[in-house]
């Protein structure tokens, strides 16, 4: 169980060459794109955090009315 058909390992040189080839295919974003996307991520995180906090307060308030 969990065994592969071949237990041979690829030589390290081939692995490094493959790794370099894959890294050369990456399209890195420019500074403007990176900044815009980072701002969107931070803003979305803040909005969702505030929404979750508000829901938490509403649920606590409702439970206090029912229990208290």
UniProtKB/TrEMBL annotation:
Transmembrane segments: 38-59
Keywords assigned: Cell membrane, Membrane, Protein transport, Translocation, Transmembrane, Transmembrane helix, Transport
Keyword Transmembrane helix: yes
Pfam families: SecE (PF00584)
Superkingdom field: Bacteria
Subcellular location: Cell membrane; Membrane
InterPro entries in the cross-refs: SecE_bac (IPR005807), SecE_sf (IPR038379), Translocase_SecE/Sec61-g (IPR001901)
UniProt key word Lipoprotein: no
Membrane topology of the entry: Single-pass membrane protein
Function: Essential subunit of the Sec protein translocation channel SecYEG. Clamps together the 2 halves of SecY. May contact the channel plug during translocation.
Similarity-based family: Belongs to the SecE/SEC61-gamma family.
NCBIfam families to which the protein is assigned, alphabetical: secE_bact
Subunit details: Component of the Sec protein translocase complex. Heterotrimer consisting of SecY, SecE and SecG subunits. The heterotrimers can form oligomers, although 1 heterotrimer is thought to be able to translocate proteins. Interacts with the ribosome. Interacts with SecDF, and other proteins may be involved. Interacts with SecA.
HAMAP family associated with the record: SecE
PANTHER family, alphabetized: PROTEIN TRANSLOCASE SUBUNIT SECE (PTHR33910:SF1)
Protein name in the entry: Protein translocase subunit SecE
């Amino acid at each position: 169980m969990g065994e592969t058909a071949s237990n041979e390992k690829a030589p390290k040189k081939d692995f490094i060459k493959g790794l370099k080839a894959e890294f050369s295919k990456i399209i890195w974003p420019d500074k403007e794109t990176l900044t815009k996307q980072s701002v969107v991520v931070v803003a979305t995180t803040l909005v969702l955090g505030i929404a979750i906090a508000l829901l938490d307060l509403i649920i606590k308030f409702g439970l206090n009315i029912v229990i208290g």
